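DM from R.C. (forwarded with permission)

"hey, sorry to bug you on a friday — could you get me a structure for this? deadline for the figure draft is monday and I only need the backbone to look sensible"
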Amino acid sequence: MPEIDLEKEKQEILQAYRGLLRAAKHSKKDAATKKRIRKAFDVALEAHKDMRRKSGEPYIYHPIAVARICGEEIGLGATAIICALLHDTVEDTEITLEDVEQMFGKREALIIAGLTKISGVVDQNVSLQAENFRKILLTLSEDVRVILIKLADRLHNMRTLGSMRRDKQLKIASETLFLYAPLAHRLGLNAIKSELEDLSLKYKEPERFNEIETKLKKTQAVRTRFINQFLLPIKKSLTEKGLKFEIKGRPKSIYSIWNKMEKQQIPFEEVYDLFAIRIIIDTDEEDEKAACWKAYSVVTDFYQPNIDRLRDWISVPKANGYESLHTTVMSPTGKWVEVQIRTNRMNEIAEKGFAAHWKYKEGGEESQFDKWINQVRELLESHDDDDALDFLDDFKLNLYTNEIFVFTPNGDMKNLPKGACSLDFAYSIHTQVGKRCLGAKVNGKLVPLSYQLKSGDQVEILTSERQHPKKEWLNFVKTHRAKSRIKSFLKEERKEVAKEGRLMLEKEFKKLKITYNNPSLKALQKHFKVSTELDLLFKIAQGEIKLKGLKDLEIKEGVVRKKISIQKRMQSYFGQKTEEEQESTKKNVLVFGSNMEKLDYKFATCCHPILGDEVFGFITVTEGIKVHKTSCPNAVQLMSNYAYRIMKAQWVDEQKIDFLTGLKIIGFDDKGIVNNITQVVSNELNVNMRSLNFDSHDGIFEGLIMVFVQDTSHLKSLITKLKKVPGVKKIERISKK
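My reply, with the result:
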């Protein structure tokens, strides 16, 4: 290990601190404020003096970097900078919250309490991340700086993720994509949201990320020439009309390009909106709307707009405070170009979100952001402590802000997420209105509960005292408020039914001389494959579980135990494996965990991994270990919510085994092409084909073949051969059958 130059490190730490002060000039308005920031730095430096990060650098670099992000990139003040410097001290050092309160004050102690991660034992059935997130939100409802500092912390961790192990990188990147990037979006932190998404993609799909990044660099000069040519007449006209402005050609984020390529199944070359042009106008607040529409008029004088793509978020801002005018116009070269028009104030809010929004907010008027904070409080109050994952799922529903605007019969406007139905609208008025909702009248026409609303709809809710929430309602409601209220009602209803099930079970237990206790109930849950006692009792009451099935269990000293077959007892006694276990061992080509253990597993059908794919193991409740690709559509959610059930998985070169995978083939419907393809698959590469399906339309064919291959190299070789078949234009691997 190389010797560390402590004196040089000390100078670099002081340099980093001075950089923080320069980046947060507005935070040291007076000597007293600067003194408090210096005190926080000194306390953090002393507390973390013997600690180092995975990269080997002193730990203090992290809190300084987080504080700098808070001041420079989010625009927060001295209190947030102090808390960012101290954010890990209570968790990782001997400093207590009482010490923080004594040295800096109650507000700082409250914020750091929200930032301190949960310690101690957490219930195995609940994700640590979900519980931690709930704790942050509890403090968020009192002080939003908690979540902003947490986002700054996550951003710096993502920027330095390269020093972590691969499995840790995947877990943290998945968490970031699943929760923190949407949260940054909801808070209006557009720049941070985009960087979090890009960094997550960099570690989850490194090859795809590097491919897009390289292609963006190669095409940059062409884009710059195009933008300059496109803007010439606009700049001239805006100047003639007396507008002060700045114009930027902003490339789309790598993540958004990748997302479009994935969703539309197109290559990079077919993504036409690789950039957007932003016109930022310098004008007084009272003249903003007129100035933006004047600029819109100039743009559309020169270029034909796509009317369907006009977005007016100036008249009706997004729930996160975002204001801008978006239009898409046709350039002389036949390319669609997105143009965003906004003022300096709007641009600062779009980039820095809440902090900038608060700066411009007028006193006495409730902002969209305040309304959202109130929704967070309401959601926290509506969920029990043991429901962390349900809470997280419901909360995520409200993170992205594709919104619609609908009206009550009196003309009051309500904003709901895109896809919301008439029942969501009913619950947004009042829980009792939602609970009793029979249907609705939309624009005077009778519609069902599941009717999806559109912007501009006027909605009147119809109710009945005899109506009550039903389980199927959860299939079409969109808002967290409606979901949580329906779930709450159904849970209470379920508890009432379960009481009857308990009486039935107690009666049966008494007959069989079984003590009604936890071990017996756990044995029954395992036998009948239900996850909770409530589910067990509910199914007994509903007749789904027949108590005569108790004969399949053995009773010993008044306690129910699951029967073990004589064969399994003998095998257990002599240390033998069953035939199934032996067969599974024969096929084992994966090892799990840091100890590289051989364990039984199954391949997930949602992504069909094959030898050579980067994979991980997921411990399921009833089916043992399921192996998924790290790029599986479900990977982000599994790694975020169930990190404690994720296992590192690694391929070992013990033996050859065939894997099922699918190929989608598109090309021109030439005579004999199907025969040529099957010849390549069957004869040239000796690959076993499971199924073949071809469909032709207007001279273009689309084929789907399911084949067994040995590994990714074998698959690449097959694809290379197939691409040489005359008429084949595109081949891609698919995950689903």
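R.C.: lifesaver. Confidence is low (pLDDT under 50) at residues 118-126, 564-588.
me: no worries. The longest strand covers residues 659-668.
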